[in-house]
Amino acid sequence: MRYDKFILGLCCLLLMISCRSINEQTTTTKTGDSSQFVMLTDAVPDAILEIRYFGTYNFVGKRIDGYEQPTALLTRQAADSLRAVSDDVMRLGYRLKIYDAYRPQKAVDHFVRWATAVEDTLMKRYFYPNLDKSVLFEQDYIAEKSGHTRGSTVDLTLFDMATEKELDMGGTFDWFGHESHPDFGGNPETGVYMPNDSITAEQFAHRMILRNAMLRHGFKALDSEWWHFTLKNEPYPDTYFTFPVRKL
Predict the structure, then answer these.
(1) CA–CA separation, 105 vs 245, rounded Å?
(2) What does the buried/exposed string (b/e) look like for 97-107 if buried means 16 or more CB atoms within 10 Å of the residue's CB?
(3) 3-state SS class at 177
(4) Is 0.85 surpassed by the pTM of this model?
(5) Active-site residue flag, 225
(6) Cβ neighbours of 149 (radius 10 Å)
(7) Per-residue model confidence as pLDDT tens digits over 200-210
């Protein structure tokens, strides 16, 4: 009797593992097909590109794998929505400045390798001076999967056409710390500033200009990065793309 129960339990366990494996295969797809992507600057000609991962001024300190040219790609749907954002902020005297858009899985894998090499702290003073590198995984600064790889996420800021400078957001792109959170210094839902010693009311208001424009045109925000937005109705929510970043 005990043997029969053991066999039954073993069969159930194997069935659960099999179902889980099948489910993971059907819900997550990798592909190198770029046919549904566009050049971001073709869709948003007024955008300024500063593709940080093509250069060396980033938290790794090297060009990131998969970035073959300093360009930005997005799915057609995300690019169309970003064009509406651009038209919106242009009326206020700003242009969009893009740090990153589509990110190939190869680049995410590079980040993971870098994060596990805890002795490599070349760019620590610029991007994570207050953190020990060993906590980057547990605090979700680095992960094995990224929404960017699905093609409808963009990292950006605003460029002030009057001053010909980036708008002061009270913090830099890819800063690992709570200062990067949208709710740092205020309530992003109401736009109400909360006085503190790290971010001014003007800087918080600048973040809200960007956030509100993105939300108005179909993007959703991330609760840990003021610069990061994903199209709500992204066309490929379960697909991770692998083609490199280069001109299409």
Answers:
(1) 11
(2) bbbbbbbbbbb
(3) coil
(4) yes
(5) yes
(6) 21
(7) 999 999 999 99
